[in-house]
Amino acid sequence: xxSFSNCKKQKEKIAANLVTIKAETDTIxxxxxxxxxxxxxxxFDYIKNDDFVMIPKEISNKKIYLRKEVLTAFLxxxxxxxxxNITFTVISGTRNFEHQKNIxxxxxxxxYKKLPPLERAKRILEFSGMPSTSRHHWGTDIDINSLSNxxxxxxxxxxxxxxxxxxxxxFGFYQVYTSKEKGRTGYNEEKxxxxxxxxxxxxxxxxxxxxxxxxxxxxxGFEFAQQxxxxxxxxxxxxxxxxx
Length: 244
Fold this sequence. Notes:
Layout: H1 2-29, H2 37-40, E1 52-54, E2 65-67, H3 68-82, E3 90-92, H4 97-111, H5 117-124, E4 141-144, H6 155-167, E5 173-175, E6 193-196, H7 197-210, H8 230-235
Antiparallel strand pairs: 1-2, 3-4, 4-6, 5-6
């Protein structure tokens, strides 16, 4: 009787260990091996990373890099749009931590320097992300044609925007910062900013599971990140289609 009881306990212990091992394996395998905290924080050299490639100069206004998968999808979308006399130029792509820090610090120390610190951070966050929180770190997000919402509200720009709304999702792209009329938090609407969802959804999930406020540091005004609820309201203040 004792032998049977011990055997049963051993089997139960083995079964429990197998469940634990499976759970740990599932957690590890759901993210690609290259995805690390440094990656999603923009703390790596994408120019020296073989997964990144420079966009052809004829469709960009400067040297811009994207992940290879994202560029392939964008080129397919561009070719489809051209059949309807719609043209796209990428004006921003991957930006690492230092690049984003330069943008942030310029606005902090010059453009909005007369504002009180908290208000200064809020003003910058209307359109620019804190370093360590920008989706442009990932190589999945692009800015197209213009950095002005008004451009996409009339004539040529409106035609381009309507085409994107109708067709971009067929190629995996979604507008990140949509209208805030329905309660979306964070950055203002950006009709130019589009994200390649097949990858960016994975990266956002990894970010939410691995990054905390203490990882957002080393730039002017970083101490306001917690007060501004930067991860919940800004990193996750996006188009619901990118959160599903």
